[in-house]
Design goal:
Arc Repressor Mutant, subunit A, 59% helix, mainly alpha, 2 domains, two-stranded antiparallel sheet, 125 residues, 2 strands
């Protein structure tokens, strides 16, 4: 499972891990009942603390994305993908709201914002 973390990001590492796993579940890259790497294995692979990966997994359990099966490990839980996607859409709206506010304060018009969005959206392809 590929997870990319950024040490220069303002987002805590456990949150970066959590969000990337959530996206993999929502996109069906990870499917229900898939076994996740152990906390120690993931920490070793990502060169981060075991506490960091433990926190990410605990948050994912609380949010219902994964389940802990004692003595067996962490597995992808059954997730209502519509609700999960709605949660992600809400986050996007929050970020876009901030971007629009900044643009308006700096007299940047909608056309320029659309151009930026198109460039950023195509970058990942």
């Amino acid at each position: 499972m590929e997870i990319i973390i950024s040490n220069s990001s303002e987002i805590p590492i456990y949150e970066q891990i959590k969000e990337q796993i959530k996206i993999k579940i929502i996109s069906s890259e990870l499917k229900e009942d898939d076994l996740l790497p152990s906390i120690r294995t993931l920490a070793k692979d990502l060169h981060c603390s075991v506490i960091t990966t433990k926190n990410a997994y605990e948050e994912l359990v609380k949010e219902g994305y994964i389940k802990n099966v004692p003595s067996k490990g962490f597995y992808v839980a059954k997730v209502n993908k519509d609700i999960a996607k709605e949660e992600q859409l809400n986050k996007i709206e929050e970020f876009m709201d901030k971007a629009v506010s900044i643009a308006k304060m700096n007299s940047i018009n909608k056309k320029v914002l659309n151009e930026i969005l198109n460039i950023l959206y195509e970058e990942d392809k």
